[in-house]
Each structure stands twice: as C-alpha cells, then as structure tokens.
Amino acid sequence: MPDIAEADIRAALRAVVDPDSGQDVISAGMISGLVVKGTNVGFAVEVAPEKGPAMEPLRIACEAAVRNLPGVTSVTAVLTAHREAPQQPHRHAPQPPRGPAAGPAGRGGGKLEVPGVKSIIAVASAKGGVGKSTTAVNLAVALSRLGRKVGLLDADIYGPSVPKLMGLSGKPTSPDGKSLDPMAAHGIVCMSIGFLIEGDTPMIWRGPMVMSALEQLLRDVNWGELDVLVVDMPPGTGDAQLTMAQRVPLAGAVVVSTPQDVALIDARKGLAMFRKVDVPVFGIVENMSYFLCPHCGERSEIFGHGGARATAAELGTDFLGEVPLHMAIRETSDAGTPIVAKDPDSPHSRAYLDLAVRVAAKIDERQAASRGGPRIVIQ
C-alpha cells in the first residue's frame, strides 16, 4: 500500500480550528515534524508553553482528523512548546528552577507512569561511538536469559539503531489507533522511532518535540507486564538526556565507555548528570576493553585498558565489567542477531551475561530498598 499523501493529511488538518486564533492549525503554522511511514502518521502540534495543558483537546482533534483518512492505521500527535528564549535576568537575580516542570507542554512535572513495568534502567554514554546500543541490546537479551521479562526502548530519536541490531523491520501494529504494540525478537519486546520512519529519513525535530515523542513511546506502547525495561539513551548530556533522566522513573543507570581518556572524560559527565537528578548509577562498563587475535591469541589493548575500572573507583561507583573488541560481536550485531542470542555460550556472551547478573542484583537491591524491608544475605 502506498504512503498516505502529505497533501491529504494537511487538508484534513485544515478542518481543525485553533480556538485561540480562530485559524485552522495549518494556517496558524502549528503543525511541524510531519512524518509518514506507510499507513502510520506522526506530527507535532506547537503551542504556547503556558497553554500546554489546555490544548490537549486540540491535539486529540488533530489525531482524530488524520485517523479518519482512508488507509491510515495509526496517528501519533504530540504537543510541544516552542518559544524564543527570554532575555536573561540580572545575574544576581534568583534563577528559575530547571527541573521536570520545564519539560514538554501538557505533560506536567511529575514522573511518567509506565503501567506494568517494574523497573526501568538507562544504558547511557556521554559520547557516541563507544558501543552503547550494542551493550544495551545484549544486556536486554542477557537479562531475558536470566528469566526476566524484558523490554527495550530505543530513545535515540536522531540515530535509532535497535531495529538493525535486533533484526526487525516493518512497523508496529495499533489495536485501537491510539496505542502501539511493541515489536518482538530474541525473547524481548522493543520499540523505536526507527519502526515509524523510513531508514534514511533525517529527524530534524527540536528538543521539546523529541521529548514529547519519547514520552509517547513510553506511555502509549502496550508494554505488558515487564520485570525491566532497558532504555538505550541518546548519547550526550544535553537537554533531551537531562529531561529524560528527570521525567522517567529510572531505577538506575549503566554508563558505557571505552578505556581511552577522551571517552572517560565524557563518561564522567554522564555519571555526574545522573547524580545531579538523583538517579542511582549502577556502575561503568568498559567496552572494547581489549582485542584477542583470533589467529595467534595475542592480546592487544587497542584503546588502552583499565581506564573505566580506575574511573569507577575514583568516582565511587561500581565497575560492572569489561567487554572485548571482537569481530563476532560486530558481525552478529550487523546481522540483527545479538551475540548473546546467537552464541550464548561464547566468552563474549559471557561478558554480557556477567554484566546482566550484576545489573539484575542492583535492580533487586533497589526494589528491596523501596519496599523498606530488611535484606537477608545468605553466605
């Protein structure tokens, strides 16, 4: 079935009138970020920040107008606030708080509720290219092999890689036109913006639009009953990452780094960001820790070695383990069959499984602490 015509979508939206301006939402310039993939449509409705909560009926009306088009199976419309930055106050004046309330319009300042999900953990890196997504995918599959019910959310809107790493294509289904059923592979369920856009479509959304989309991927997906939801965070420590850490009820975070100094500098920033918003850091993983030649067995520390362990000790957090640089990990990732799923008995899979055991213990500790009961250790 061919894609829904953008002109038809805009024509449908012209029937929706903004009650404040009296103009239709297209003429008022309120629609942005329109994305069409097959029979799925997504867009943002831009409103003034102070009017966010009151404009929810307008968002619903826009969704309904597009959903009524022939051939449309799902519509995702998000409210987003955009305004030019106000003039900075005098440097001696009190600064307004930067917290959850500064997030997207219409979502309030509290933590998001994700029904059925017991624990949410973030896999993060303050620097791209350190293997964060590969770590997140293999950690999720490894947690599943430990007997946990696991979900995986690809929160990297600008560079979603979970569809490729999980070997998934196509688009998720919607049972009611309002929510999405997650995709499933290798024993876990997952969701990514990559399922809803063409592979070569660039995302040029502003920060508030990105956060609104992420909130909907969390809130409007039928995750079911999960022991843990692994979130593959976008790289960096900007506003989107900070807001995600503030708005999502994270049980903890796993920071991924390579051994080299330039990556560890950024890993420190990532760890500091989570601590700033009171998210427990489970520890640091050293990825691409060393290389073993498959022919002669010689060990080469291409990016150095031990830097993450030393940094973890210096910063007072746990060192969660080291993962080697190996062709098998790269090959299975490119093939969409994570190494833990493809060859769970390999030494490379063992590294991820050991990581999963440590993370699972951290999750259990957090849950026990939240219940307030004593923790009995049997030795």
Polypeptide structure, described:
- There is one protein chain.
- The chain is 32% helix and 19% strand.
- It is α/β, with parallel strands linked by helices.
- Helix 3 (132-145) crosses helix 11 and helix 5 packs parallel to helix 6 (239-247).
- Residues 83-108 and 374-379 have low confidence and may be disordered.
What gap, in angstroms, lies between the N and C termini?
61 Å
Topology as a string of helices (H) and strands (E): HEEHEEHEHEEHEHEHEEEHEHHH
Widest β-sheet, arrangement of strands: 6-7-5-8-4-9-10-13
Class per helix and strand makeup: alpha/beta
| Apparent shape | globular
| Radius of gyration, in angstroms, nearest whole number | 22 Å
Number of helical elements: 11
Mean pLDDT: 79
Strand content: 15-25%
Number of strands: 13
The main sheet comes to: 8 strands, mixed
| Helix fraction bin | 25-40%
Low-confidence stretches: 83-108, 374-379
